[in-house]
Each structure stands twice: as C-alpha cells, then as structure tokens.
TrEMBL record:
Localization, UniProt: Secreted
Assembly, per entry: Homopentamer. Pentaxin (or pentraxin) have a discoid arrangement of 5 non-covalently bound subunits.
Cofactor note: Binds 2 calcium ions per subunit.
InterPro entries: ConA-like_dom_sf, Pentraxin_domain, PTX_dom
Superkingdom of origin organism: Eukaryota
Annotated Pfam families: Pentaxin
Listed cofactors: Ca(2+)
This protein's name: Pentraxin family member
Principal subcellular localization: secreted
SMART domains linked: PTX (SM00159)
Amino acid sequence: METKMLLFFVLLWTTGCSEVRDLSGKQFTFPNDPRGVNQPHVVLHAKTNSISTMTVCLRFFSQMNRMQGLFSLATVDHENALMLNKDGDGSYKAHTGSDTYIYKKLPTNLLDWNSVCWTWDSQTGLTQLWLNGLHTSQKLLGKSVVRGELSITIGQEQDEFKGGFKTDDSFEGDITDLHMWDHVVTACDIRSYMNQGSFSPGNLLNWNNLNHTVSGNVFIQDADFVEPVCQ
Ligand SMILES: *[C@@H]1O[C@H](CO)[C@@H](O)[C@H](O)[C@H]1NC(C)=O
Ligand SMILES: [Ca+2]
C-alpha cells in the first residue's frame, strides 16, 4: 500500500510539471513504447483560448507504417479541433472541428526527417499542407473557429479532451522544431523553415521557448536535422 502511494506521488511529480525551455537543436524521442507508463506524450501549453487562423510546422522522423498522430489540439467541444495525422501509406489527414480533408499518399521519408507545415484560415476555410519544400494545392476545410481551453499533445492523439489515447494512433519516432503561429505564414517563410533558413518563431508555440509537460518515456536528445559539424 505504502509503496503504491509513493509510486503515485512520484508519478504525479514526474508528470505534472510544466517547464519552459529552449529546445533548439533538440528533439523529443518517442520510442516504441505506446503502452508505457502514462502512454508517453508531451503536452504543449499555448496562451490562447481562440484560434481562427493558424500555421503549425514540425519535423518528424519515423518508420511507423500505421496511422499516427502528428499534432493533436482538442477543446472541450471538439476532440479533433485541430488535428494532423499521417497514415501508413503516406496519406495525411487534416481535421478542424468536425471537418476533414485527406491528402492521399504524399512522398514521405522513412529514413530521414520530414518537414511538415499545415496552414488554415477559418475566414475562407482554405487549408494547405507543405511537405519537404513542396506543397499541395489549396483545399477547403471547415470555418469553425477554435474556442475554449486548449489541450495540445504530441506523441499521443486525443480522442477526448486531455485523454482518450489509443495505442494504434500513438506516435513513434522523433519530433523537433515545432512552431505554431496565429496566422498563415508566407510561402517564403515556410520554404525557409524547411531549408533550415531563418524564420520568425511561432507566437503560439515556439520551440526555442517551449512551455511543455513531459509524460512517460519521452526523451530529450540532440536532433540531427542540421548536419552536425564534426571536429
Ligand atoms: C506554462 O504552462 C502552464 C500550464 O498552462 C502555466 O500554468 C504556466 O504559467 C506556463 N508558464 C509560463 C512561463 O508561461
Ligand atoms: Ca482524435
């Protein structure tokens, strides 16, 4: 009994703390442990209660050939308020509120990084997906503005607000350079992001100043997206 209580408090202590950190040059490593303690994931804290326009960019490295969540933003009303998933065949599913668009079979690296950016504007409903310097044509997605307390996770996909994680859409691999903006970033800036050039960091989520909470077996390691200069 006492051991159980102690374990409980240790878990609370190791999973409950948010930390603001400059993660430049670092990655979150999610190994093959989706059933692990607390179903490994990272909660990202953004200071807003409303999103009507956005861009989210991240780089991921994974060989997983099943559905996996790349970015999961839930509100109390919508578990998939803003969600990006990748399927085993390289299809990407973008979801806003209750609307979905599926980009079928985009060429995705299995043994290298993939840089992904997703833009959406609720005024027009237009959305666009960028992958490794290329982009799709514009598509129409929903126009419903995201409102209320936000719950953002990577590593696991929410099927309910702050939870509902399932082993079969968890993420396995590495994630780095995640940024989120409250506007549609220009094509020039997105290309620059993808080529590791200079760009203005996200004003909703900023990898260089990321407020986050790690839960379970997630490791922070050096990322090798930029070729390291070996001495
Ligand atoms: C980080 O996020 C937590 C949870 O939302 C919040 O309580 C805390 O104030 C944030 N820290 C900073 C420095 O913004
Ligand atoms: Ca979901």
